[in-house]
Amino acid sequence: MTDTNTPPVGADAEDLLNPLRDPRDRRLPLIAGPSSMVMFGVTGDLARKKLLPAIYDLTHRGLLPPSFGLVGFGRREWSDDDFAEYVRKSVSEHSRTGFSESVFEQLRGGLRFVTGTFDDSAAFERLTEVVGELDRTRGTGGNHAFYLSIPPDAFPKVCGQLAESGLNTPRDGSWRRVVIEKPFGHDLESARELNAVVEKVFRPEDVFRIDHYLGKETVQNILALRFANQLYEPVWNAGYVDHVQITMAEDIGIGSRAGYYDGIGTARDVIQNHLLQLLALTAMEEPVSFRASDLRAEKEKVLSAIELPEDLGEHTARGQYVGGWQGGEEVRPYLEEDGIPADSTTETFAAMRLDIATRRWAGVPFYLRAGKRLGRRVTEIALVFKRAPFLPFRSTDTADLGQNAIVIRVQPDEGVTIRFGSKVPGTQMEVRDVTMDFAYGMNFTEESPEAYERLILDMLLGDPPLFPRQKEVELSWKILDPITDYWAEQMDPAPYRPGSWGPDTAHEMLARDGRTWRRP
Amino acid sequence: MITTLTDTTASAIDKKMIEMRETFGANTIGRVLTLIIIATGDIEEPLEAAISASHEHPARVLVVDADPEAEVSGLDAEIRVGRDAGAGEIVILRARGDIMSSLDTLVMALLLPDAPIVTWWPEGAPSAPVHDVLGSMSQRRITDSAACPAPIATLKRLRRGYSHGDSDLAWARLTRWRGLVASAYEVPPVSVPKQVQVAGSAENPSVVLMAAWLSHTLGVDAKIVDPSDDAPDYAGVHGVRLLRADGTIDLTRVSDEAIVLTLPTDDSGQHVTMPRRTLNELLAEELRRLDPDEVYGEVLASTFSDIVDSGTFATGKPAPTDTVVADADAVAVAAAESAASQLATALKERSVAHLVVTGGTVGTKTAGALPAALRSTGADLTHLHIWWGDERFVDPESADRNEVAVRAGLLEPLQEAGLPSRNIHIMPSPADGMSLEDAAAWYGQQLDLLGGDEPFRTRGGAFFDVLMLGVGPDGHVASLFPEHPDQRQVGASAIAVKGSPKPPSERVSLTWPVLNSSRHVALLVAGGEKADAVADGHGEIDPWPVPASAVRGLETTTWFLDTAAASRLKG
């Protein structure tokens, strides 16, 4: 993966022709080219708390060009100044790098607002004019990105309007891109429909699916750990690895997402995208380069090699949190959260075993689990190794010794832990588990950019490796659909206490294989 | 927490750190590099930058707070961990006196195993970072020419001594400017500018590097122009203008916070935030990549591309004069008397004097005549320093050593007369446990420590008071031989010479810039076999075929000759 200082692979040809951008000049900040972003759904939570602050933070870090425009599109009767006030409020509350009048001043010159609804053709004509005006006065060069921070059912209308007004068609030498947020459908069929709508209007390579999880540094650090080192590759296979556990736990409930969450559930919400992406990065073969197409080829290969358990009842688990005290706080059961029907069978915990039918991973189960209101907030990948034969030791020597493990912590406290046995000092010969820990500096997160900053910048630069493509999306639905179908018909979620590590069925599921979940 | 150790050693510090780790568990986890800071002035500001950078790059920071002039040698240390050290751990080494002569072994025990080393000179830059004893073991060597007394001269010096892995904060200060210019270049319709202007002072290294970068990459001669009169007084780059066929793109700094961009299509001016960069940010950027910054190297090389002729170090100084006497003994007496009076003047006027002695028959005779000559001036020798222009890298007791030759005649009598032995700067031999290269680097550093790099920055300054040189029949001086590739090394104060045409083949020699930083130069020659070399040495300055022609004193250059050696001189 590239980082912000290296030139993008697959960048526009004109970038590469700039003699000032020497690929060896790794200090030179990679500033997005002249461009603007048109944001639909700009008054939503995501835009207010994440997207606008990310754009501001990018400006603060000097990574957006001076000639950057930001156009809000919405129903409110706002002037440009009203919109500027709204943006100021949003960024002063939520920006990561601190509010500075001077930075805002820079952004302010390019702020525009267009009032209208999604079926108002006249509003889209006004939008076309505003975009043209930005090209003339700000020098945005005909490069425009459309950020659809809106519910998927509004996509057809907006895409249709963009096509009708010609906004989707770039002039020579400029680009038009569209950004959509997960969920990319709720099953294979809906994902295909959604895609058909968007790709009718934009070319596939101009569609950027944002999965903010993939903007996280550590996801890319997995690639660095695996492929930049000689140490891990020899043991990264079925010969040494007993099994792999991928965990994404949150300690909070569903909060205000009831409307979206109910009926979707944990498996569709995070396993389909985040956990399967982590699995793909962990299990894939070495790509021939980090170019988007090569990386995708490997991820697609490993995703298509995934096999589901024959007996889904035995090897998957599903849960729903009940009420109680969690970490000193009394919390409501899922069924009593605001906006959740009392008879909901949506799961807030999901676990499953997947196998990968490749030579590297034959016989090595990958256990995935994710959920809300679990013990603590943690995302990690743990490779648990086979036991050593212990030949020279007496059995009492190694009584305390577990299995060796390499744990990649994605969040929080990003880093890598290796667990191995060490002799206890002073005793005759007694071996016990110890851990060797690497953290990306104790204050690393302070310096590390927000995922949205990274993704928005990469999108403006046209740097695609971090964005999933439609094929990956479809492959993941193919994996998940049989499980969610089975659950809908035959398995209701089992209750679990908030602050625990999921329902008993999850622990039984591993016990059947003679294994236990790690306590992360 | 802060722990202080007085009169300590590196291994005691190391032991203390392990002890602190065992007691508090504080200073163990995941340090990615060792950062050595060589402080000559205030240490708090660099330290603060290092602490701040440690959040991004957890490091062990070794601060060498040096006082080489101290009478009594000793080492105090301060260890800071936890809250007082950011995400790193800090050891401040207060080194006094002779400890500075072995800086590498001082820090050796405290380096993190295997981890990269970065050395940073916040103020004084060594004459050639890579030839510095610490610089040579570092992956990255960071200087700050803008913080040195003569910034542009320092940058020139760094250019001469450049090696992969060097970088300068004057370059890092440009990063955001460069990013902005690169994106301004991309404003459509893209075309190569016909003209480029950089506004700022030509005495500021960042301005000079900016112009060099643009010239080098765009192939257009970027001009440095003075900022307009009403411009506020900023250090560094005031603005950049790209003059294209379709109009002018202008970037001008309007405050410490912001610059204004005007485009051909829009001259109303777009406000761009670009705060001036803090030391913390600069250091964090430097530590982000430890591989060589090749672009900086190329830009630096193109900045002062005209320094190629080593003869330039000798030009522009008073013409040499001749003192011709009967024989070698008379040469020695005349040269010794002249040197004694020059040294006495230096000691009186500046309270310190630096003398460079030489070997060979006449050189040794002159050295032998010097104690008596100095005695008659009545000078106090406490602050006299003795150096060598070159030395053979052989056994320390070998008769080939220049030092051995003058030991009885010069060094012992002078020590009896009050010269402190630490002021005798003998070039190392294999017995000191160094390789030839290490020996040269070590000697260069001893010069730097006492201020020997001062004149290295410019031809205008002087370090030595009297430089004595013999001249070989082939015209060589010190160990700079005619048409020998090693004489072209001008990046360091002292260099290793291999394959000398005259045995022994391995030597350490001072280089052109240092030899040419003396107030008075005395060339000591006797004997008819050297008459041709003397005649050639009187010709045009041309170091490659005739080294003897290319050393000049800032005040005087005198050929002390006997009649035989002077026999081929015209007129």
List keywords for this structure.
heterodimer; A: 520 residues; alpha/beta; Dihydrodipicolinate Reductase, domain 2; 18 strands; B: 571 residues; Rossmann fold; 23 strands; globular
Strand order of the largest sheet of chain B: 1-4-5-3-2-6-7-8
Number of strands of chain B: 23
Average pLDDT confidence of chain B is 87
What is the CATH homologous superfamily assignment of the largest domain in chain A?
Answer: Dihydrodipicolinate Reductase, domain 2
- Tell me the count of domains of chain A: 2
What is the architecture of the largest domain in chain A at the second tier of CATH?
A: 2-Layer Sandwich
Instruction: Report how far the terminal alpha carbons of chain B are from each other.
Output: 77 Å
Radius of gyration of chain B: 27 Å
Q: Assess the beta-strand content of chain B as a share of residues.
A: 15-25%
What global shape of chain A is seen?
globular
Q: Which percent range describes the beta-strand content of chain A? A: 15-25%
CATH class of the largest domain in chain A: Alpha Beta
Helix content of chain B: 25-40%
Structural class of chain B: alpha/beta
Would you tell me the overall average pLDDT of chain A? 86
Largest sheet of chain B, if any? 8 strands, mixed
Count of helical regions of chain A: 16
Largest sheet of chain A: 10 strands, mixed
Helix and strand layout, with pairings?
The complex is a heterodimer of chains A (520) and B (571).
Chain A (H helix, E strand, L loop, with lengths): L12 H4 L18 E6 L4 H16 L7 E7 L5 H15 L6 H8 L2 E5 L5 H17 L6 E5 L6 H10 L11 E6 L6 H14 L5 E4 L6 H11 L13 E9 L8 H4 L3 H19 L8 H13 L1 E2 L4 H4 E6 L2 E3 L2 E3 L17 E8 L9 E6 L6 E8 L19 E7 L3 E9 L7 E9 L4 H4 L3 H11 L8 H21 L3 E3 L7 H9 L8
Parallel strand pairs in A: 1-2, 1-4, 2-3, 4-5, 5-6, 7-13, 9-18
Antiparallel strand pairs in A: 7-14, 8-12, 9-12, 10-11, 12-13, 14-15, 15-16, 16-17
Helix pairs in contact in A: 2-3, 2-14, 6-7, 7-15, 10-11, 10-15, 11-15
Chain B lengths: L1 E4 L4 H15 L8 E7 L4 H11 L4 E9 L6 E7 L8 E8 L6 H6 L8 E4 L19 E4 L7 H10 L5 E3 H4 L2 H11 L9 E5 L5 H14 L3 E4 L13 E6 L2 E7 L4 E6 L2 E8 L5 H10 L5 H10 L17 E5 L2 H23 L2 E5 L2 H18 L6 E5 L1 E3 L9 H15 L19 H14 L14 E7 L23 E4 L9 E4 L1 H4 L2 E8 L5 H7 L18 E7 L9
Parallel strand pairs in B: 2-3, 2-6, 3-5, 6-7, 7-8, 9-10, 15-23, 16-17, 16-19, 19-22, 22-23
Antiparallel strand pairs in B: 1-4, 4-5, 9-11, 11-12, 12-13, 13-14, 18-21, 20-21
Helix pairs in contact in B: 2-8, 7-9, 10-11, 11-12
